[in-house]
Automatic annotation (TrEMBL):
<protein>
    <recommendedName>
        <fullName>histidine kinase</fullName>
        <ecNumber>2.7.13.3</ecNumber>
    </recommendedName>
</protein>
<dbReference type="InterPro" id="IPR036890">
    <property type="entry name" value="HATPase_C_sf"/>
</dbReference>
<dbReference type="InterPro" id="IPR050351">
    <property type="entry name" value="BphY/WalK/GraS-like"/>
</dbReference>
<feature type="transmembrane region" description="Helical">
    <location>
        <begin position="292"/>
        <end position="310"/>
    </location>
</feature>
<keyword id="KW-0547">Nucleotide-binding</keyword>
<feature type="domain" description="Histidine kinase">
    <location>
        <begin position="437"/>
        <end position="651"/>
    </location>
</feature>
<feature type="coiled-coil region">
    <location>
        <begin position="392"/>
        <end position="430"/>
    </location>
</feature>
<dbReference type="GO" id="GO:0000156">
    <property type="term" value="F:phosphorelay response regulator activity"/>
</dbReference>
<dbReference type="InterPro" id="IPR003661">
    <property type="entry name" value="HisK_dim/P_dom"/>
</dbReference>
<dbReference type="Pfam" id="PF02518">
    <property type="entry name" value="HATPase_c"/>
</dbReference>
<dbReference type="InterPro" id="IPR036097">
    <property type="entry name" value="HisK_dim/P_sf"/>
</dbReference>
<dbReference type="Pfam" id="PF07696">
    <property type="entry name" value="7TMR-DISMED2"/>
</dbReference>
<dbReference type="InterPro" id="IPR003594">
    <property type="entry name" value="HATPase_dom"/>
</dbReference>
<dbReference type="Pfam" id="PF07695">
    <property type="entry name" value="7TMR-DISM_7TM"/>
</dbReference>
<dbReference type="InterPro" id="IPR004358">
    <property type="entry name" value="Sig_transdc_His_kin-like_C"/>
</dbReference>
<dbReference type="InterPro" id="IPR011623">
    <property type="entry name" value="7TMR_DISM_rcpt_extracell_dom1"/>
</dbReference>
<dbReference type="GO" id="GO:0007234">
    <property type="term" value="P:osmosensory signaling via phosphorelay pathway"/>
</dbReference>
């Protein structure tokens, strides 16, 4: 009996021990899921809430608040950082925290500083065992927010005192990141004022640079400034979307616009490509890299079209990949071009390397590949301001570089021009010496032929007469070509125009027509001088008479019997010149012949070749141009006449 009692007491002690251990375990398990409340009594003006929160992940996203508070309450886990980063996830995230407002003074507010959460719902106890919901987010109208603020701001219940437990539910198609804070009324005002000041300076700087570069483009018409304006526009649009200001001020009732923030990625990528191609002068200096960027632009276009077909979060992944490719490509391109000796790329490299690094870190933070902190949302701001400063300096450096390059090219061109002018001057001297030598050498046998002709005039037979006639004709043509050629080259080589004065073309032409009266009558032609007798032009009268004589001679020789030659004038007083036209009804000319008819030694037709030297119109052009005029020819075609135009300045 005593032994049985002792055995029974032993079993009872073991049972009590096991029961005690079980109670301890259960109490520890219960303590593990309890929320450590945030005391507002000694919190100052703000409290970082992230480390005080507990996290529960709902993979299917269909748990209710009651289920979270009861069935799944033990699954909450403590968070150990001030920021919460869940990356791209399809799960719904539940958060739980408690606030001890026993000795709190004034109002306190929960502020979620990450403004692009798709859906965030705060559950606040209503004092009657239930909860009141505040459902906001950047996919919901801005008017649903309890406070007009770009961040998500909720007023906490601090008047009743005691410990209050709150629940938050977040979900979205984009990256789920949180930077929760508790602010007193004073702390919230100070935070808002400081943030508005910094944001105002940021956007003000971007807008000023955008307007400044737009004005530069309108003034200089340099596309590099237009591409920079496109880039700034993309940066502004991106930051307005991700900062919450767009939903607050621009499209408060159309939150759908916020979902297209990825458009800025393609605007920035395209404008950066166009900017780089022109800024780095890839087409002129690095054609291989020019072709690379052309293929990159095609890739951007394909990705842009694909972006419209993909659903979030895959569309967000695609735009992030485009941003990362852009980071790698242009960082490499800038360094490569700089290393190959293009000095102006140094500030370009400095600007884009820092900017693209900030975008790279921002993308890693959104993807959850690096810790998400309060600095991450502001990385695009820092990068954009850095680019504005560096590229402003880079554009100035580029202007100085191109100016120095232009001056160097101008000096080289000047030296080349001077060398060519010296060569031309030497050629002219050589030509003059050659012509003098040739004229001397030609004149000697011509004189011999003349002397021989004089000696043989008395003893010419009938057969010899034809030979001597041919000799005389050759002598005359040789003498004419030598004299005419020397006259043409003398006119071409003179450095100063002839002595000019006021001339009356009508009277000059009238005297010439009287001198040619017999020739006109033999040819059976009619010549009408319709030039105004009051017309006065500025020219050298002797050379003008020479040009008119050559023009009339050509018109008479190439006109058929019974035809007419008409000379008219037209005055343009505002332009300060007069046109004199000599029209005939002769053989005319083809368009190909008109292109060369004013060139020296150009002959047209066998008769012209026999009697002329192809220099009359060329000499006429030289003489007219040297007094500030113009000479050109027109013809409707072969057999349809010929018109010679003389344009002379009014006296």
């Amino acid at each position: 009996m005593i032994i049985d009692v002792m055995l029974g007491e032993g079993r009872l002690r073991k049972f009590h021990t096991l029961l005690l251990l079980l109670l301890v375990f259960l109490s520890r398990a219960a303590w593990g899921v309890q929320v450590s409340p945030v005391s507002l009594a000694e919190a100052g003006e703000r409290v970082s809430l992230g480390e005080k929160m507990q996290i529960l992940e709902d993979p299917e996203g269909n748990w209710s608040l009651d289920q979270v508070r009861t069935h799944f309450a033990s699954r909450f886990r403590n968070n150990d950082s001030s920021a919460l980063n869940f990356g791209f996830t399809q799960s719904t995230i539940w958060l739980r925290f408690a606030v001890d407002a026993s000795q709190a003074q004034g109002s306190w507010f929960l502020v979620e500083r990450y403004p692009i959460l798709d859906e965030i719902t705060l559950f606040v106890p209503d004092g009657e065992g239930g909860f009141q919901e505040y459902a906001v987010g950047d996919t919901r109208a801005f008017s649903l927010r309890p406070m007009n603020h770009r961040s998500f701001v909720f007023a906490l219940e601090t008047d009743s005192g005691g410990v209050t437990e709150y629940y938050i539910k977040i979900r979205g198609k984009g990256a789920l990141n949180m930077l929760p804070m508790l602010y007193s009324a004073k702390g919230l005002v100070e935070f808002t004022y400081l943030e508005q000041l910094l944001q105002g300076l940021f956007y003000g700087s971007l807008v000023i640079m955008l307007v400044y570069n737009l004005l530069l483009y309108l003034s200089l018409r340099d596309n590099v400034h237009l591409h920079f304006v496109m880039f700034l526009g993309g940066v502004i649009y991106f930051n307005i979307c991700v900062s919450g200001f767009g939903l607050q001020y621009l499209w408060p009732e159309w939150p759908k616009v916020n979902e297209y923030f990825w458009l800025a990625t393609y605007i920035i990528a395209l404008s950066l490509s166009l900017y780089s191609r022109q800024f780095l002068q890839l087409a002129q200096r690095f054609p291989r890299y020019e072709r690379l960027l052309q293929r990159y632009q095609i890739l951007i276009g394909v990705a842009f079209l694909l972006q419209w077909l993909l659903e979030p979060p895959y569309s967000y992944h695609l735009s992030t990949i485009v941003a990362l490719i852009t980071v790698v490509l242009f960082s490499w391109l800038g360094w490569t071009v700089w290393r190959q000796g293009f000095r102006v790329a140094r500030l370009y490299v400095l600007a884009w390397s820092v900017f693209l690094l900030t975008i790279f870190l921002f993308a890693l933070g959104n993807l959850g590949l690096m810790p998400y902190s309060v600095v991450v949302p502001y990385l695009p701001h820092f990068g954009a301001l850095w680019v504005v400063v560096m590229l402003s300096l880079a554009l100035g450096d580029r202007i100085r570089f191109l100016e120095n390059e232009r001056k160097q090219l101008a000096q080289e061109a000047q030296h080349t021009l001077e060398r060519h002018l010296a060569d031309i001057e030497q050629m002219n001297q050589d030509k003059s010496m050659f012509l003098q030598y040739i004229s001397h050498e030609l004149n000697t046998p011509i004189n011999w032929i003349g002397a021989a002709d004089t000696l043989g005039q008395g003893s010419q037979g009938e057969s010899e007469a034809d030979v001597w006639a041919m000799v005389r004709k050759g002598q005359k043509r040789l003498t004419g070509i030598v004299g005419t050629s020397l006259r043409y080259f003398d006119l071409s080589d003179r450095n100063q125009p002839p002595l000019m004065g006021a001339c009356q073309p009508m009277w000059v032409l009238d005297a010439l027509i009287r001198d040619l009266d017999e020739q006109i009558e033999r040819a059976g032609l009619t010549v009408r001088n319709r030039v105004s007798p009051n017309l006065r032009v500025r020219a050298c009268e002797s050379e003008l008479k020479e040009v008119f004589a050559m023009a009339l001679d050509n018109a008479l020789r190439f006109s058929a019997e019974g035809g007419s030659v008409e000379i008219t004038s037209d005055v343009d007083v505002p332009a300060g010149h007069a046109d004199i036209c000599i029209r005939d009804e002769g053989k005319g000319a083809t368009s190909e012949q008109l292109e060369h008819i004013l060139e020296p030694f150009f002959v047209m037709g066998s008769r012209h070749h026999e009697e002329g030297f192809g220099l009359s119109l060329a000499m006429g052009r030289v003489m007219i141009e040297q007094v500030g005029g113009q000479l050109w020819a027109e013809s409707a075609g072969p057999g349809r006449g010929f018109t010679l135009h003389l344009r002379l300045p009014l006296a």
